[in-house]
Amino acid sequence: MDLKARAKKLKIDIPSVFIALSKKEVSLIAKIFAGITIGYALSPIDLIPDFIPVLGLLDDIIILPLLVTITIKLIPKEILNQCRIEAEDLWNKGKPKKWYYSIPIILIWFALIIVFLKYIFF
């Protein structure tokens, strides 16, 4: 599978994982991994910042697909197929405009920064 095909598959798999979060048939561990995956995908802050040459981009090329792969293996196949169909419909209507999903991610990073600053200065 070439890089373009993998990127297109990832574009469907990430929303599929997000949709799977709301399914009651998905196990708790799968939901935890799905939350981590979606959080990492939406997070403006990476483990390795993008401005670091090569390593910054490898971070997104390796970690995000790895998280998606682990999460997909934990979700039952029939539920995942249903979520993929729903995710394709999401993208057919254009890019989702639900920006408020990023609020929890921003709050978590803001809290981590505050804790970090308190640790340094106090």
Q: How would you describe what is shown here?
A:
- The structure is a single chain.
- The chain has 5 helices and no strands.
- The protein has one domain (3-95).
- The radius of gyration is 16 Å and the shape is globular.
- Helix 1 (3-20) crosses helix 2, helix 1 (3-20) crosses helix 4 and helix 2 packs antiparallel against helix 3.
- With 122 residues, it is an all-alpha fold.
- The longest helix is centred in the middle third of the chain and has 20 residues, at 55-74.
- The mean pLDDT is 82.
Structural class call reads: mainly alpha
Report mean pLDDT, rounded to a whole number.
Answer: 82
Q: Uncertain spans, ≥5 residues at pLDDT below 50?
A: none
Shape: globular
The domain count comes to 1
Q: What fraction, in percent, of the residue positions are helical?
A: over 70%
Classify the beta-strand content into a percent band: under 5%
Count all strands and give the number.
0
Distance between the termini: 51 Å
- How many alpha or pi helices? 5
Helix and strand run:
HHHHH
Largest sheet geometry: none
Taking all Cα atoms into account, the compactness measure Rg is 16 Å
